[in-house]
Amino acid sequence: EIVMTQSPALLSVSPGERATLSCRASRSLSNLAWYQQKVGQAPRLLIYDGSTRATGIPARFSGSGSGTEFTLTISSLQSEDFAVYYCQQYNSWPFTFGQGTNLEIK
Amino acid sequence: EEQLVESGGALVQPGGSLRLSCVASGFTFNDFPMYWARQTPGKGLEYVSAIDHEGGKNTFYATSVAGRFIISRDSSTNTVYLQMGSLRTEDTAVYYCARRYCGSGRCHASDVWGQGTLVTVS
Q1: What is the pLDDT at residue B103?
Q2: Average per-residue pLDDT in chain B?
Q3: Rounded-to-5 percentages of helix, strand, coil across chain B
Q4: Contact residues, chain A, for B63 at CB < 8 Å
């Protein structure tokens, strides 16, 4: 099973600033997604294949990385962006998630 | 609108059984693999089962539920099921149904999710 590790667990950023979230895989992969989840809601797909934005996702969200190191960047935080973010690999079953990064308002 | 609606969550005793249902609408159900995932405060998000879009010939299970859960799909009603047996307290979670996005000959991540249904084993 591929283990996904996210850092940091908690990130405090001011609105309008940039947020950078990290995700590390226990082995190399190419199929990596990022999700946003708000309290009481289902996960929402933001990025797939490491860097492709899902339908309707604003351009301020971008994904990068390869191999075992991946990054989600939110260029200018809006109030609605404060949430928990998960990375997930779908290279091999069982597909696995990281433990999440809680992005909070500073 | 593409939508998934789960139902069937309940309070059940350890060792009991439960069947979850997920009805799809707004898209061609037979074109997409379908998944069940669950979420707990302690263990986070976990995919528990998957079924392909080729008539459901291929199914996949997490080690934690293999031999106890069965996934199936019914194209006549656009429904995916999760039959859960020998339930344990650690199966307590919110269970989500999700569609795997497929396009241009490839499949990617899960792009449509239901609202979730709560299963409590106690």
Answers
A1: 83
A2: 95
A3: 5, 55, 40
A4: 1, 94
Q: How far is CA B31 from the centre of its chain?
A: 16
pLDDT the model gives residue B41: 81
Mind listing the pLDDT tens digit for each residue in A64-80?
999 999 999 999 999 99
Residue with tokens 């061609």: B28
Residues 6+ apart with CB under 8 A from B12: B18, B87, B119, B120, B121
| pLDDT above 90 for A5 | yes
* DSSP-based helix, strand, coil % in chain A, nearest 5: 5, 55, 40
- Phi then psi for A95, rounded to 5 degrees? -60, 140
Task: Looking at the complex, report in whole angstroms how far the Cα of residue A63 sits from the nearest Cα belonging to chain B.
Answer: 14
Q: Count Cβ–Cβ pairs < 8 Å, chain A vs chain B.
A: 56
* Cβ(A15)–Cβ(A105) below 8 Å: yes
Residue of B nearest to A89 (CA): B109
Q: By CA distance, what is B40's nearest residue in A?
A: A99
